[in-house]
Amino acid sequence: MKSFADLSEREILAVAISAEEEDSRIYMAFAEDLSERYPASAKVFEEMADEEKTHRHMLLELYEKRFGPNLPPIRRDDVKGFLKRRPIWLTKNLSLDTIRKEAENMEYQAALYYQKAAEQSTDVGIRKLLGDLAEAEKGHERHAGKLEASLLTDEAVAEEDKTRHRMFVLQFIQPGLAGLMDGSVSTLAPLFAAAFATHHNWETFLVGLAASIGAGISMGFAEALSDDGALTGRGSPWLRGTICGIMTTIGGLGHTLPFLVPDAWPNSFWIATGIAGAVVFIELWVIAWVRARYMDTPFLQAVFQIVLGGAIVLAAGILIGGA
Fold first, then answer.
1. Model-level pTM?
2. Is 71's pLDDT higher than 70?
3. Do 53 and 124 have their domain in common?
């Protein structure tokens, strides 16, 4: 890789031309990714892509005047210490905030390159153009704000906020809630069956730990393999699977940890069981609240479904363990 200080003016312009072309394609990729979910914001990135194309034409025109039609085969990846681009645009269904933040970083890095390149150049025409482009890149964030003000009407903003909320529910709340429900409810029966069968806290804890981790692994893979997110817009399957698996494990561990109460304590079994029962009660009410808050389920209906279902599973575990 070449050092930036070793670049000739011809190479500086060639790198800038290549960078503007690539940034234009990146902005268009962002626009395509956002077109269905956030059409107004997609229009903003289309405008920014057109700006990058204009910059490229300006650079090409100056380059041809100074050095002719042939560009040297050098790109920004060939320059040591030059701005790097994370290939996040290869990932579909990125959040709007992530895309906007990436665009801000791109503009900042481009402005910094033009500023340093202008300082290094000795040609008056090249120095002037690079300085102008540095100012243009610095102003892109303000320009994007103006575009958003004209394109993102109150109605468009409200629609995008609604879409953002829906995506958040689909990609995070839904798999997390499914995991928490499964972990909290499915581990009740084996945990309390072991508790009332053995009356030993440590053995009960081991059963609950195994059930929680096993359920987390199973639910994580089931969620990841159930839907690739391409048609449903639910995002990365492995992210959903990770969220679901972690929340499943947490749901089971919540009422398992109380059984770490040492067996040597007086009435240790009943202390641990009482704490675990209180934790179960809190878990079930939290699940009911989340369902009512994010899944448009009436609160009383959510309470009836979750609390009653959990109570039945708990009672089944106690009856089996005490048999």
1. 0.53
2. yes
3. yes
